[in-house]
Amino acid sequence: MASRKEQKEQLRAERERKAQEAAAAERRKRMVGFGAAGLLVAVAVIAIAVVVLAGGGDDGGSDSASGESRGAEPTDDFPKGSIPKAKPTTLEAAAKAANCTVKTFPSEGRSHVGGKVEYKTNPPTSGNHFEIPAADGAYNQAPDAEPLVHSLEHGRVIVWFKPGAPAQLQGQLKALFDEDNYHMILAPYGRGLSGEVAASAWTRSIVCPKVNNNTWDALRLFRDRYRDQAPEQVA
Q1: How do residues 96-121 score in pLDDT, each as one tens digit?
Q2: What does the pLDDT look like over 57-73, one tens digit per residue?
Q3: Full 3-state SS string of 131-149
Q4: Using 50, 70 and 90 to split pLDDT, how confident is the model at 221?
Q5: Does position 192 have pLDDT exceeding 80, yes or no?
């Protein structure tokens, strides 16, 4: 039979063992808590990074001041339309018959910039622009003017119309675009187009206050004369 002293030693040892187990359990609990907190922090950091990258500054959103959409992409989502067949004529004669004005302007520059540019002509015909040009194609929402001006520098001709133009007119413009879309862009101009329709090439423009049957030949002949007549020839 164990003595009283031995019993005390056994009880003390048992208390120490339980204390050590309790301390170990507490340490494990704290480590789990730290791990969960670290995971939450990591998730939060990743979520913030995704939001920042998705935002991409202003590139993925819209410019409410100009009414232009930076995320605009070429599309075939246009009303159906048709236009008169081409007639033998000259640009000067067709422009006069359509009451359109053809002009040539001095270059406003061709440097790459990151912000909004105020162009001196309406629609733009040259000037500083974004580093990445707009893709060829037909747009039913207005892209930024700056990448479009870069496309002009690459020899493109842009046919412009006002945002919210009647469906019939949009269909007619798309029919013109589809006739010959090589190095062509069709787009609304979000900064207030001076005519009902217009077209521009590098340092040149044709502006038509109202559309009539002669307008289409004027735009065709402007396209054919000034396409790929720019400082940089890019395929």
Answers
A1: 999 999 999 999 999 999 999 999 99
A2: 333 333 433 345 456 89
A3: CCCCCCEECCCCCCHHHHH
A4: very high
A5: yes
| Structure token digits, residue 56 | 């991409």
Over its C-alpha atoms, the chain yields an Rg (Å, rounded) of 34
- Is there a contact between 211 and 97 (Cβ–Cβ < 8 Å)? no
CA dist 158 and 150 (Å) reads 11
By the 10 Å C-beta count (0-12 exposed, 13-18 middle, 19+ buried), 21 is classed as: exposed
Amino acid at 68: E
- Chain mean pLDDT for the chain: 82
In the structure encoding, which two tokens stand for residue 89, read together?
């004529």
Query: What is residue 126's DSSP assignment?
Result: S
What does the domain layout of the chain look like in residue ranges? 1-55, 69-226
Cβ atoms of residues 195 and 173 within 8 Å = no
For 47, phi and psi rounded to 5 degrees?
Answer: -60, -40
Q: Which positions ≥6 away from 181 have C-beta within 8 Å?
A: 136, 137, 138
Token reading at 140: 């039913």
Characterise 57 by phi-psi region: left (phi > 0), alpha (psi -120 to 50), beta (else).
left
Which tokens go with 37?
């907190």
What is the band of 52 on the pLDDT scale with cuts at 50, 70, 90?
Answer: very low
Structure-block tokens of residue 38: 């670290």
Cross-strand bridge partners of residue 199: 159, 206
Cα 198 to Cα 206: distance, rounded to the nearest angstrom: 5
- Distance (Å, whole) CA 140 – CA 142: 7
pLDDT score of 58 = 36
Confidence of residue 12 (pLDDT cuts 50, 70, 90): low
